[in-house]
Amino acid sequence: MHKYLTKRAFHSFISLAGLLVLVFFLTRLTGDPGNLFLPIDATLEARQEFTVKHGFDQPIYVQFGRYVVDLAQGDLGDSIRKQRPAIDIVLEAIPVTLMLAAVAMSIALVGSIVVGSMAAYRPGGIFDRVASISSLVSASAPDFWVAITAILVFSVTLQWLPTSGMGGPATWIMPICILVIRPFGLLVQVVRGSMITVLSSAYIKTARAKGVKEHAVIFVHALRNAMLPIITVAGDQAAGIANGAVIVETIFGWPGIGKLMIDSIIQRDFAVVQASILVTAIVILSINIVVDITYAILDPRIRHK
Question: For the chain, how many structural domains are there in total?
């Protein structure tokens, strides 16, 4: 398994390096930051001073080379807007996003396992049909549309929940629910299909013949062997929640890394954009490696690769 994980880590590093190169050059296409940070009537000398101070007077390949050297030394640059190290700003925002994503993913995973298992217990039954239709609708619902509709209904019309911000428990409800909808719908389908296959296996029939209680058959014997595809999809959805947080945090004014990233792109704060994407990519790649380790633990065949 060590060789397998080393290979996965190497591939992750290559992907991360390619992403950083792409982000660096794409951010420079958004325009000159001086047009946003300097007054309209700024003198030519002031503009030149701003450009030289931040290194924008150098050719793009020189800027990239300096970025690579600084990155290798752990320096991600300073925020133009806040005049602080970009990594400090990002590390202040990332815990908020991780907390929101962790709660949403936990609810989606536990809820989908329960609903999917119950639907698989009697395929074609009323509960199975309702769960299948509901999960398909959930998996197909666009996050931004559901979020805007939720604000219109629960905040503007009914005035039950705040429209934005991070504060008391009420401010968590809509962002978490929006992030739960899509992974819950997809995971219910995966759990249902996997459990139907496992529940028809010979060893399940043997366990029932021995008098094992039905809830133990489903949630102990069957679920363990049905977990491999569930873990794979759950890992993808966990990474998807990290990406989906960009939309949700922007709509609900949630002070996480998603909103920070969007604000920094609009403000052309290049160092913060690059640091935000770097940290987000590391989190997503780490999730994928954890999923691989879990997969290897459950599937002994992978341990010998």
Answer: 2
DSSP string computed for 237-286: HHHHHHHHHHHHHHHHT--SHHHHHHHHHHTT-HHHHHHHHHHHHHHHHH
Structural Rg of the chain based on CA atoms: 24
Which is nearest to 189 in space by CA: 267, 269, 110, 133?
A: 133
In angstroms, rounded to a whole number, what is the distance separating the alpha carbons of residues 70 and 34?
A: 22
List the domain range (segments joined by +) for residue 118. Answer: 86-300
Alpha-carbon distances, residue 176 vs 53, 105, 169, 170, 185 (angstroms): 42, 9, 11, 11, 14
Residues 20 and 162 in one domain: no
Tell me what pLDDT residue 300 has. 62
CA–CA separation, 241 and 101 (whole Å): 6
Bridge partners of 78, per DSSP, are: 85
Q: Which residue has the tokens 């700003």?
A: 89
Q: What is the distance between the alpha carbons of residues 253 and 258, in angstroms, rounded to a whole number? A: 10
Rounded Cα–Cα distance for residues 23 and 11 (Å)? 18
Which residue bears the tokens 């990332």?
Answer: 94
pLDDT bin (cut points 50, 70, 90) of residue 263 is confident
CA 252 to chain centre: 16
Would you say residue 77 lies in a domain? Answer: no
Q: Residues 117-147: pLDDT tens digits?
A: 888 888 888 998 998 898 888 888 888 888 8
63 and 141 in a single domain? The answer is no
Amino acid at 305: K
The secondary structure of the chain in percent helix, strand, coil, rounded to multiples of 5, reads 80, 0, 20
Q: Residue 304: what pLDDT?
A: 46
Q: Which of 3-17, 127-141, 231-245, 288-302 has the highest mean pLDDT?
A: 127-141
**What integer best gives the mean pLDDT of the chain?**
84
Angstrom CA distances, 236 to 71, 177, 209, stand at: 28, 18, 37
